[in-house]
């Protein structure tokens, strides 16, 4: 009589579970359809490029003049703060439309001149808008305080351009939607799956077979991992080929994203194991699951940068694991970072994995 193969049993469970997942409309809708809908909507809306007019003031600008005072108070311009390296980095990516430098001149008829530095990644319409705003401010100051002079300042028509890679809205949105898909599937999918297996006595029937408990969990988990990695490939593929989602190093970047997605999915499945263990009945699963998912959907930079939140809330945002997945993925896909470059964010994901699976081990129930 041949010995019982635990690996064959594991793969049999994986195959059966994967088939049932693909046959589940809710799994397909929440894992693939919803994220794709968001990507399509934001992709079409952002096809014209970035519409946010962020600017920065050159460190060598003359700030003791009425022009500087006026433009700092204009709601249409959002001034980005930071050291010169950060400003140059953001400028080259098109996240800052223009760097403004106000210079004092020796010409009494034109006391100041204004130079603009922009990037090839910036939307030309936004650069023109910054010019128009500056000219409007100059005209208003001339009318009030400098009526006797030709003009207080002139905006240089020649805009200095620095090299840059176009940063599209899809480069921000797609990582958030992939994280949305992984988190939803990891928490809701695993929670409902293992709760139902326990309630329907499927796990109890497994006990009658020689397969070990660990292989039962690994088989079911492996099917979820395969399904979600297929989902990730679909989402990234559509984002890249339909909306030019940036993969700086091509296949190398793509594989790095899949590895990062695998790590994140393992973590998010841990939340699902916790929920399946603490839920008393099927109707209590969604409220428990939302305790883990909803704060991360809203606060982890899924739809907009966490810099938009109040300062007191940002430390909470930076604790959430989905925040670190989003940060790492955006840095890998657009910045061209390797997995080692993103180790700061990935190490926090591993810390979460240790904590979450420690809790899952205490709360998970077999019967």
Features:
62% helix; alpha/beta; 367 residues; 6 strands; 13 helices
Would you mind describing this structure in some detail?
The structure is a single chain. By secondary structure, the protein is of the alpha/beta class. It has two domains: 6-45 and 168-363, no CATH class; 54-162, no CATH class. 62% of the residues lie in helices and 7% in strands. The chain has 13 helices and six strands. Strands 1, 2, 3, 4, 5 and 6 form a six-stranded mixed beta sheet that branches. Helix 6 (169-199) packs across helix 12 (321-335) and helix 9 runs parallel beside helix 13. The longest helix is centred in the middle third of the chain and has 31 residues, at 169-199.
Count of DSSP H/I helices: 13
Number of domains: 2
Please give the largest β-sheet: 6 strands, mixed
By DSSP, the count of extended strands is 6
Averaged pLDDT, please?
Answer: 82
Radius of gyration: 27 Å
State the separation between the terminal residues, measured CA to CA: 32 Å
Please bin the fraction of helical residues: 55-70%
Quaternary class: single chain
Name the beta content range: 5-15%
Shape: elongated
